[in-house]
Amino acid sequence: MPLKQRLSLEAYFEGIRKGDRRILSKALSLVESTLPSDRELSKALIERCYPYSGKAQRLVITGTPGVGKSTLIEALGYYAVEQKKRRLAVIAIDPKSQRSGGSILGDKTRMQRLAFHPNAYIRPASGNYGGIAHSTLAMLILCEAAGFDLIFIETIGVGQSETIARALCDLFLLLIQPGGGDELQGLKRGIMEMADLLVITKADGELLPLARKAKTQYSQAMRLMPLPPYGFAPKVLMVSALQNQGIDTLYDTIQAYFQHWKQQGYLQQLRKEQQIQWIYLLLQNLFEERRNTLQKNFKEIEKQVIEQRLSPFAAAEKAIQWLMGCGS
Ligand SMILES: Nc1nc2c(ncn2[C@@H]2O[C@H](COP(=O)(O)OP(=O)(O)OP(=O)(O)O)[C@@H](O)[C@H]2O)c(=O)[nH]1
Ligand SMILES: [Mg+2]
Q1: Ligand 1 proximal residues by C-beta, below 6 Å
Q2: Residue 182: CA atoms inside 13 Å, Cβ hemisphere, count?
Q3: Which of 201, 213, 278, 308 could form a disulfide with 68 if both were Cys (CB 3.0 to 4.6 A apart)?
Q4: Structural domains in the chain, sorted by start
Q5: How confident is the model over 179-208, as pLDDT tens digits?
């Protein structure tokens, strides 16, 4: 891979602070770069931007594949930038894009109005360097330093990505597909408990009666869940992103949550807890990364354990000492 043309730290920083999208894009590529030669500059840039982060409203938009996340982001995002003059960054955590790089193209066609809007910025998080937690957090910090005041993180509700997303966002928005059956769609209780707001998608045409039914069922189900710390059961709304229905109500509801949370001091408390949580999420990444190098160096130790000359307890102690000694 040819070495990329890099700017100086201050050139990146000033470009980002001025909201220069070209420089922001280059900076985001830098923080996701896997080239060892980019590491120092990348770390320095994140440090430089971190004090300027934290001013946006952060939303996660999640739900099973095909539920309508991208289409809703297009409709809600366009409403926010056009009607409410917000500045929106969309970060798509998409395992598919890690494999093929193809799906963001699909998303860009689904988010056409947004993709070309001067106050919106759409970007996939590849997780190539340091994993998805590292990429998403680094992107969030840089986008906030660039002055975006609304961040949408799109993620499919599977695996590790929703836990990371929960740790990154203020408001967790779970999308639900109007289904055929009476039963709740086998959604994991865990993900329902993470949600602050449930949105039944595709409430139009033939699906409208099913959407109404889903709304009733989920409203009842949410009342049986433990109450979130802010004291009321998650609301359940119905939208049609394709027909642009319920989008204004959704936006207003989201804003009402934020207002309520701010008044209660909940938002401030949540952010503090998340900042601490990030340290340990990132630590896990660092650990996983170094574990590979460790194992290469630990063949002899592994052999001693197999031959029962050293216990796994002593070997683990040696491993932690080795990791602590291996610096940054
Ligand atoms: N009828 C109807 N169809 C919708 C609506 N929103 C999305 N769809 C359709 O549902 C399909 C999936 O929509 P997407 O927005 O790509 O869903 P997604 O959740 O982003 O999908 P992945 O990113 O692949 O997980 C598309 O064919 C959309 O046209 C809606 O409001 N009404
Ligand atoms: Mg999508």
Answers
A1: 63, 65-71, 110, 156, 201-202, 204-205, 240-242
A2: 0
A3: 201
A4: 53-264 (3.40.50.300), 276-325 (no CATH)
A5: 844 455 566 677 888 899 999 999 999 999
